[in-house]
Structures are given as structure tokens and as C-alpha cells.
Design goal:
Length: 389
């Protein structure tokens, strides 16, 4: 994740000395973790990994249990993800306890080989119920331990947001779910993005589920996102995430929003599973001389790779090619998918196709609002149609 800045606070009526006295217990059943990728909407790369426990949190008044659970979570997440920055949830009431919870978490991380500066602690949305001064003191404790700070909600007073100056603040899923259809929520998200740009804080859109939401966030200036569009609850660090539609990465320019839509040029795609062998793909190309590409999809029908006919046949039918590749996964010979939302203008899709020097004439993969393969678009068809207009 982009680097710069610090961590956050918490609150509990117990005295500080009661937190963490028993140390960090061994892994327990309730420590099962859910991992979520945090994705850069410019490049589609995973910049950080958010981890959270699958089970319910301890009672709000049990500061010691909350602190130990947070330390266990940090240690186990650090073991599973050793390279990318981590984002871990912190119950807001824990901020009012004192520095001990964050010292406990720091020790657990160091034992797992991670440094606090690699971890962002995201204070839960209940932070809006804390008075500003205890909140600020808790965040100071968090930063003194070396952590970055993030806010788990954007529903805080602007002056409090600026005084805290977190590294990241979370744009609530309720806001994201309403865009771009609800103009009021769209205006709120755009305003939050402007506040972030003006104050050096990164807004993180939570709960992104569709291509239209993703593109609306890009237009608003939001650059970080997580949600079911990118991966489901079974995702683990190191796995692929759903690719961003190429047209979503192209800045809007005059003349790109007119003319026919991509959906008018979509033709059926030949799709196969991720584990498909090169021999099976070769059979598909051999059975249809007009077939220009084969798309590899995951279990949710989202494209994960594409095989261009010419390059694939060159690799497989060359000297020793069949012996080297036939029984092995076709994905070894595949390219990253070039996806485009099916409802974008054809001119924008053509511009996306020509953005790079290579693969200019590769088929584009049209995706629906959930990122699933809806067919392919041949770049030649786009050129011929637009040339006639």
C-alpha cells in the first residue's frame, strides 16, 4: 500500500494494567481468519491484505480478551502473509485502555518476523461514538508503537478526520452500494475523495461488488478498494483477484462516450477451467478454424487468462512443443486477460486495446457487472465498424 503515516486508538473502562497480563495464548478455533485483498484501481495490483477473525469478537467490556485476540490475529496473519502490508481491525473501545494492547500486538508481530510499520491498524466504525480527546490519545499510543492508523468509517466529523490524519479511511459499504445510481451517495463519495486528496489521506472503498461501482469510484478519484468483485471469502494471500476492465483504466476524454457500445460487438467465447491442459486447448483450436482465442475462467466464470490462437499454436506446434506442453496446464502459455465492461462505448474499448505496444489485436473479453465472462470482442470488428461512422 502507498507508504506514509500512522495508527489508531481504543476504549474500555478497565485499568490499563489489566490488558495482556496473561500473554498471547496458542491458536484457538475462534482464530479462523478471513483475508481480503486491497486492490489498486489504477493497476489492478493487490497492494495490501486485510485480515479479520471469522468468529464474533469478545464482549465489549473485556479489554484483556480483545487485546489478546488482536495479538493472536496479528501473529497468525503475519505468518500467512509475509510480504504485503497488512490491515488489521482494532475495536475502537480498546483505544481508551492505554498503550498496553498495542505493545502486546507489536511483540506478537516481531516474533512472527514482521515490523509494526508494515501493519495498518483500522479502528472500528464505533470510533464515532468516542469523545475526540480519548480517541486522539489512543491513536497517539497506536502510533508510538510504530503502527499506521486507519479509520473504519468515513462517518466522522471532518475536523476530527483532519486532526487524526489517518493513513487510510474506509468509505462505508452503504455508500459504495448506492453508486452510481444514487446521485446523493455519488456526491458523498466524490466529496470524500476530494477530502482525501486535499489532506493526503487515502480513501478505501469497501464492499465493491460490480463493474459499474468500480468505474464510478475511479471517476470519483478513489484509488483503493476491496470487496466481493475482487475475491470471495475463500481467497487467501497469493491467489489471483478478478482483473479490472481495461476501459475502467482509461481516462475519460472527449468523444469516447458516444457511438455504439461494446455489447453490440460481443460474440460467444470458448471458456475452459483454470486447470485445462494445453492438449485440450489445442483440440478446441483444431475443431474451429475461426476460433481466435480461448478464455480460462475460475469457478465463478471470471476470466483469469487468455490464449491467443497464433501465439499458442506457435508454442505448441514448434519443435518439441507438443512434448513440452501438451499434458501440462495451458495457463503456462496464457496471457493476462484484457477485459472490458460490456456497457462501455466501443471507442473507449478500442482506445484501451491500443494503449500498449503488444497484443493490440488480441480479443478483448467482455465482462458483466460481476466481472464474469460475457463473450469476446474482436478488435478488428471495432475498427471496421468505427471506420464506417
Amino acid at each position: 500500500m502507498p507508504s506514509s503515516r500512522e495508527p489508531l486508538p481504543a476504549s474500555d473502562p478497565r485499568p490499563a494494567a489489566s490488558v495482556g497480563g496473561g500473554g498471547v495464548h496458542g491458536d484457538q478455533p475462534e482464530d479462523a481468519l478471513l483475508f481480503r485483498p486491497i486492490v489498486d484501481l489504477d493497476s489492478g495490483a493487490v497492494l495490501a491484505v486485510a485480515a479479520e477473525p471469522a468468529a464474533a469478537a469478545p464482549p465489549a467490556g473485556d479489554a484483556a480478551a480483545q487485546a489478546e485476540r488482536l495479538a493472536r490475529l496479528a501473529r497468525r496473519a503475519a505468518v500467512r502473509e509475509t510480504l504485503l502490508p497488512l490491515v488489521l481491525p482494532v475495536p475502537a473501545p480498546l483505544l481508551t485502555v492505554g498503550p498496553e494492547p498495542f505493545t502486546l500486538v507489536e511483540h506478537g508481530l516481531r516474533r512472527a518476523g514482521r515490523r509494526p510499520r508494515d501493519v495498518t491498524l483500522m479502528v472500528g466504525p464505533e470510533l464515532r461514538d468516542l469523545p475526540p480527546e480519548p480517541l486522539l490519545r489512543g491513536i497517539a499510543h497506536l502510533r508510538e508503537a510504530g503502527f499506521r492508523c486507519a479509520l473504519g468509517t468515513a462517518s466522522v466529523a471532518p475536523d476530527v478526520l483532519l486532526r487524526i490524519a489517518p493513513f487510510v479511511f474506509r468509505v462505508d459499504p452503504a455508500y459504495v452500494a448506492g453508486i452510481p445510481g444514487d446521485e446523493r451517495l455519488t456526491a458523498v463519495v466524490e466529496g470524500l475523495a476530494r477530502i482525501g486528496r486535499g489532506s493526503g489521506i487515502f480513501p478505501l472503498a469497501a464492499g465493491v461488488a460490480t463493474v459499474t461501482q468500480l468505474m464510478a469510484l475511479r471517476r470519483a478519484g478513489v484509488r483503493l478498494a476491496e470487496g466481493p468483485f475482487f475475491a470471495d471469502d475463500a481467497w487467501t494471500p497469493g491467489e489471483r483477484v478478478a482483473p479490472l476492465p481495461d476501459a475502467a483504466l482509461v481516462s475519460t476524454a472527449p468523444g469516447l462516450d458516444v457511438g455504439p457500445r461494446v455489447s453490440e460487438f460481443v460474440v460467444p467465447a470458448v471458456t475452459m477451467g483454470e486447470a485445462t491442459t494445453a492438449e485440450e486447448v489445442l483440440e478446441a483450436f483444431g475443431a474451429d478454424e475461426a476460433l481466435t482465442s480461448v478464455i480460462l475462467v475460475d469457478g465463478r466464470e471470471r476470466p483469469v487468462a487468455s490464449l491467443d490462437r497464433a501465439r499458442f499454436l506457435l508454442a505448441v506446434t514448434g519443435p518439441y512443443g507438443h512434448a513440452l506442453h501438451a499434458k501440462r496446464p495451458a495457463a503456462r502459455l496464457a496471457d493476462p486477460p484484457r477485459t472490458v465492461a460490456r456497457d462501455v462505448p466501443a471507442m473507449a474499448a478500442l482506445r484501451a486495446a491500443g494503449a500498449g505496444q503488444e497484443r493490440v489485436y488480441d480479443d478483448l473479453i467482455a465482462v458483466n457487472e460481476f466481472g464474469q465472462c460475457a463473450g469476446v470482442v474482436r478488435v478488428g470488428d471495432l475498427i471496421r465498424s468505427l471506420a464506417r461512422e
